[in-house]
Predict the 3D structure of the following.
Amino acid sequence: MNDTDRNIIEQVRAGNTRRYALLVDRHKDRALTLAFRLTGVKEEAEELVQDAFLRAFKSLDQFRGEAKFGTWFYRILYNLCMTKVTRRRGRPEQLDVQDEKALDSLLVDEDEVTIQERLEDEELQHIIAEEISNLPEKFRAVITLFYVQEMSYGEIASVLSTPMGTIKTNLFRARNLLRERVLARTKGEIKVA
């Protein structure tokens, strides 16, 4: 059965709470990616995702359906992550390089890639991941939500409780800052879109 999130939520509200596991399965990977990118610590990210799913479950009656479940849920998760990072008062640890395919859109597309180019691409992915983790939080969040979570400007504005114009400006500035930092590290040897 191919249920929508909205249908599953209605079934859970009607008493079939086991159906909530379907929502968890649908959103857990992206949620973990978001939490990890925002906190930089895998164990913290896992705990925060579990906490966010639990809070969402307990608050499911408050979900009005004006936004997608994912957008509503990611807002909960984002708030938990920012609370954790703020309490820590330190910079997140360097992020591991994993699942960087979502960041490929930051690179120049090439039809055929030689072994040397592939190595450069892997090196560039590592540099990009490191530089994203070093961006200011407002830029790191918007880059992660746009490229990794593949959210629209409107969804990002909802998750971050920020006007859409600010989201567009922050994304533009984040891309430029990221490009500058990557080019500085690579001394312009690797092409960045």
